[in-house]
Amino acid sequence: LTQAVFPSQEKEVRKWKEELLDQRRRMMEEKLLHAEFKRELQLQAIVKKAQEEEAKVNEIAFINTLEAQNKRHDVLAKLNEYEQRLNELQEERGRRQEEKQARDEAVQERKRALEAERQARVEELLMRRKEQDARIEQQKQEKERAREDAARERARDREERLAALSAAQQEAMEELQKKIQMKHDESSRRHMEQIEQRKEKAAELSSGRHANTDYAPKLTPYERTKQCSLCNVVVCTHKMYS
């Protein structure tokens, strides 16, 4: 806006300077006219004084009187001419003043129009900036919501993976416990078979040494528990005999 208005302002300043110089020139001309008029009046006064001084001489006084009248007529004519010229200058000054006032009003009107245009552009720019800020804020909120949704989705996926991993671990643990139990059951079964075999062998030996079964050794059952060293699970075994 400043670059657009500056040439017009420079032109108006140049015109204003020209008018000021013209006004000063006219004032100087008026001063010169007044000075000339004063000189004429002074000259007239000097002549009049000389005429009055020479009035005592008859012939010279008469001649001086005629000359004084002629000069007075000339001075009055010049005075009228000066007054007419002064009136013309005053009229010209008034006309120029009116023209200057009209130009000033036109300049002010142009300034007001330019200011209105500038204000309209500023308001439009502010509106565009406001809309842009609103779009940026909306995009920011949308990105934030998308980020939160993605974070929730990642958290849900992580929880699902953890749940699946926990389920897999639980299933693996249960499978391991089953295998341990199966091995333990198999070991207990073999142990029981060995005990039965020992019992049978002991019974055979006992029946050979003792005719009466009342003196045969008795087998006393007892409870026995074991703990898995891998999963720290206590496993109850079958009843054993001693």
UniProtKB/TrEMBL annotation:
Compositional bias of kind Basic and acidic residues: 183-203
Tree of life domain: Eukaryota
Region: Disordered, residue numbers: 130-159, 183-218
Record-given protein name: Trichohyalin-plectin-homology domain-containing protein
Organism annotation: Oncorhynchus mykiss
